[in-house]
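Encode chain A's predicted structure.
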Amino acid sequence: MSLIKQLWIAIVVVTLLALGGNLIVSTLSARHYLEQQLRVKNLDNATSLALSLSQLPKDPVTVELQIAAQFDAGHYRLIRLVSPKGDVLVEREYEGDLTGAPNWFTRLVPIAAPAGVAQVQDGWHQFGTLSLESHSRYAYEALWTGTVEQLLWFLVGGILTGITGTLIIRHITRPLHGVVEQAEAIGGRRFVTTPEPGTTEFRSVVRAMNALSVRVRTMLAEESGRLEQLRRQVQHDALTGLYSREQFMNLLHAAVARDDAQATGSLLIVRIGELAGLNQRLGREGADRVLKRTAECLAAVAAPHTGWDTGRINGSDLALVAPGEDNPERLAAEVADALRQAMAEEGEDTALPIAASRYAAGETRSAVLARVDGALATAEQAGGRAIRIVENPEARPLHADLQGWRAALLQSLNANGVRLGRYPVVSRDGKLMHFEAPMRLQLAGEWQPAGAFMPWVARLGLLPQFDIAVVRAALDEITVSGDPLGINLSSASLCDAAFRSELFRLLHGRPAQAAQLWLDLPEYGALRHTDEFRSFCIALKPTGCKVGVEHVGAHFGQMSDLHELGLDYLKIDASIVRGIDADKGNQSFLRGLCVIAHSIGLLTIAEGVRQENEMASLTELGIDGMTGSAVRMPS
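Encoded structure for chain A:
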């Protein structure tokens, strides 16, 4: 029960106790007063009438006339004259309505006034005993009228008390809204701080909650910093600062295996020509300086693009993988210009041959590397700083230009809609968490995977339109099967107001299905649009769906204020997971990542699990769920 309701109940109870108690006490006091008045009246009237009768002749007619006159002149219920022997000499009794109030009221509050008794004398002898009772009807009327009037005043007072209490509660609880919002934020794993209110009790609560938020934030920042330092130690080359060969190969494998808008891209390799001769001519320090400058040039080219990675794949070869870059000529020219300027500043004329190639969705890592290595050998034979671009002879786009792609994509979307794949995501105890549901689209008579067409969808600016189609398809499938589904959303949709509006409309309109929906957004999108991503996550909370970040790993340290996003889970990139059973460095990094995620209530799910050994190692490291070719549907 909320604090506001409790305050209202307290006010109502106190008001009822005060007004009700006052009403009861007032009514009983009034009844006692009326009873005393009736008793005095009965006694006085009986004494007066007995005195009058004592002075009159005692013939029956005279006595009866005197009593009748008294009875008719006053308001009496009964006048009775009894002889000393007990015989009733005269009696007058009122036979009409005896009460002036509702029967239930007279039963609840009875008025009991004793009769007035006096002796009638006949000279020195007793003539009889006179009993007189006044009529209580008017006493009941007065008591009932007074009680009703008092009750009405009490109702007016209760209403005024309620209005006053409402105003007081609003004033008192004004700082409470901030406390409630902060408590809800902490409950949603967003450790925010709020200004301290003026109310002493609320101030102490807010101060304690702020201290908790600051401690958690500081702890997470420290742990994230240590984790990032560990990641750089185990994944990066000590000399150049680029990724080591093993980690870069994992990144390249993950890049060519992607099934989204970044499924295609370019791979570029730069070779330091005649490295042995460079060592003899410049010495070890001079050769290292050339390597560092070359690495800095590649890193500078990759830095503006989230998701681009660089690595040192052997002593003299440095590589750059650029997901989403479909123009290797432009990439090679940019790298060559950067190297030319850097070497001119160093005063070196070192041979730096460059080779680049575009890779397509569905290619293998070895095929892409072999193609670029062959082109690099040709560039090295040409001498100097030759550039060679090689195309994949097997990569034939379904359509020649953007207009052809636009027409085909929209026609297929409108005619056939989208189909969703199904790949199980299983918890470490073997239970189904949800199904990964990547998009499929019918092109050239076949259902194509997302990697075959999503890069073109991205170039044509159609991502929000396709994403909302996937959401509709997922909600429809959940309605039929009842299974939880996970779908991918793009960063472009994240920033599209029309998409967000339609998404919220769909989710609010189908709450049961929304509760079974898992929404994945890419790490590079969360990094590029942090504010929009935070607002998006918070806005989705009331719908009941789960929100997470996929492909997490290489840039985890850049995801500042992770606790404020209101996420439900993280999906660890396949480049971290690949070969995890034998990679001690990545094991330490992944263990620390799981600790941080679990400390703020996030699930961790490993992507691209290919072997049983990897599954066993991931379970030991604390991963909550897994997906990949080695993961099977639980029986």
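Residues 3-55 form the longest helix (53 residues).
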